[in-house]
UniProtKB/TrEMBL annotation:
Transmembrane segments: none annotated. The keyword Kinase applies. SUPFAM superfamilies: P-loop containing nucleoside triphosphate hydrolases (SSF52540). One of its GO terms (biological process) is dUDP biosynthetic process. ATP binds at residues 11-18. Keywords: ATP-binding, Kinase, Nucleotide biosynthesis, Nucleotide-binding, Transferase. GO terms for molecular function: ATP binding; dTMP kinase activity. It catalyses: dTMP + ATP = dTDP + ADP. This is Thymidylate kinase. Belongs to the thymidylate kinase family. The keyword ATP-binding applies. GO terms for cellular component: cytosol. Coiled coil: none annotated. It comes from Oryzisolibacter propanilivorax.
Length: 221
């Protein structure tokens, strides 16, 4: 059985994450891997209820933080860990980097408290040893906030986060850049301003570069 693989998709709203997650899922399936596609906040019945509150109900930053981590704990325990244990590739649309970017950089919430909650929530008691669950790789869709805003304006009615002003997303984007600087081996920066086909090709190339998918010229042969 292959070892499980945990890959997260991150970036500001409108960067194009959700548009490309299926492309990577198809590539892994074509390579014979089991794939679990999921998202945060959400991914379980309980966490999807919390998602609705987070996206649509007014609340202060601490409440927001507690809800995203509560949703994450349920998601990790009941979906992510069991899938990884089965040897699946888990592709997750957002994870804890989003909390540091949105609640930390965007809302100005204390980063030290976020780190403590991260340690608490992602602590897993394994069959052999306890460990911290972190993504194996994070695809960071980086795009200028004004481009992302134009895409979203054309796409759908905004939720509570998407309705935030450009200055909020400028801070969130800087928050992602900080997280990428802190974990350069985990992050792959995707130039999400490019047209969709080019973005998809870069996503596949970054994953192939880690040896988890055949390189494009091999799969064409
Ligand atoms: N590279 C691209 N160039 C132009 N438009 C794009 C590109 N990628 C995605 N889009 C369009 O931008 C809009 C937002 O894309 P998408 O929903 O994938 O972004 P997202 O990062 O998942 O946003 P959110 O986090 O808010 O769900 C969609 O209408 C999509 O078709
Ligand atoms: C995980 C997580 C998410 N958010 C925000 C970011 C987005 O605006 C929404 C989710 O919507 P999407 O269309 O599925 O991207 O939630 C957050 O603020 N903090 C988090 O930890």
């Amino acid at each position: 059985m292959s070892a499980g693989l945990f890959i997260t998709f991150e970036g500001i709203d409108g960067a194009g994450k959700s548009s490309h997650i299926d492309t990577l899922a198809q590539a892994f399936r074509a390579a014979g891997r089991l794939v679990t596609l999921t998202r945060e906040p959400g991914g379980t019945p309980l966490a999807e209820k919390l998602r609705q509150l987070l996206l649509h109900d007014a609340m202060d930053a601490l409440t927001e933080v507690l809800l995203v981590f509560a949703a994450r704990r349920d998601h990790l325990r009941t979906v992510i860990e069991p899938a990884l244990a089965r040897g699946a590739v888990v592709l997750c649309d957002r994870f804890t980097d989003a909390t540091f970017a949105y609640q930390g950089a965007g809302r100005g919430f204390d980063l030290g408290v976020l780190s403590q909650l991260e340690q608490l929530v992602q602590y897993i008691q394994g069959p052999e040893a306890d460990f911290m669950r972190n993504p194996d790789m994070t695809l960071w869709f980086d795009v200028a906030p004004h481009i992302a805003a134009e895409r979203l304006a054309a796409a759908r009615a905004p939720d509570r986060f998407e309705a935030e002003p450009l200055a909020f997303f400028t801070r969130v984007a800087a928050g992602y850049a900080d997280r990428a600087r802190q974990a350069p081996a985990r992050f792959a920066r995707i130039d999400a301003a490019h047209p969709p086909a080019q973005v998809a090709a870069q996503v596949l190339a970054e994953v192939a570069a880690r040896g988890w998918l055949p390189a494009a010229r091999d799969s064409a042969a």
